[in-house]
Amino acid sequence: MVLLTGYAAKQCARRVHNEWDPTIESVPWDLPPELKMRFDSGRAFEDDIFAKLKQRLGKRCI
After folding, report:
1. For 21-40, what is the mean pLDDT?
2. Are 31 and 23 within 8 A, CB to CB?
3. What is the distance in angstroms between the CA of the first residue and the CA of the last residue of the chain?
4. Rounded to an integer, what distance in angstroms lies between the CA atom of residue 41 and that of residue 16?
5. pLDDT of residue 5
6. Which residue has the higher pLDDT, 60 or 19?
7. Looking at residue 4, what is its pLDDT?
8. Residue 50 in contact with residue 42, Cβ under 8 Å?
9. Engineered SS bond to 57: which of 11, 12, 52, 61, CB 3.0-4.6 Å?
10. Domain of life of the organism in this record (predicted)?
11. What 3-state class would DSSP assign to 3?
12. Please, where are the H alpha helices in 1-62?
């Protein structure tokens, strides 16, 4: 039995079904290099912003 949270109720019912039904075969997906580069750039940007906030705010932001 699969118990889902309220978050699943906000999503497409077909998507939730396909993600959680063990009889549906999942298709492996390789992340394209361009998309990986964008994700990595976004994470680096977030790390930089959080480091600057922590430096300015000190322990108050922890």
Report:
1. 93
2. no
3. 39
4. 30
5. 87
6. 19
7. 86
8. no
9. 61
10. Bacteria
11. coil
12. 6-9, 13-20, 33-57
DSSP at 59:
G
Query: What is the amino acid identity at position 20?
Result: W
How far apart, in whole angstroms, are the C-alpha atoms of residue 18 and residue 24? Answer: 7
Q: Exposed e or buried b for every residue in 20-36, given b needs 16+ CB within 10 A? A: eeeeeeeeeeeeeeeee
Compute CA 31 distance to the chain's CA centroid, rounded to the nearest angstrom.
Answer: 14
The letter for the amino acid at 22 is P
20: its two tokens: 């959680």
Tokens of 12: 């497409």
| CB contact set of 18 (below 8 Å; sequence gap of 6+) | 24
Residue 15, amino acid: R
Residue 59, both tokens: 């322990």
**pTM of the complete model:** 0.52
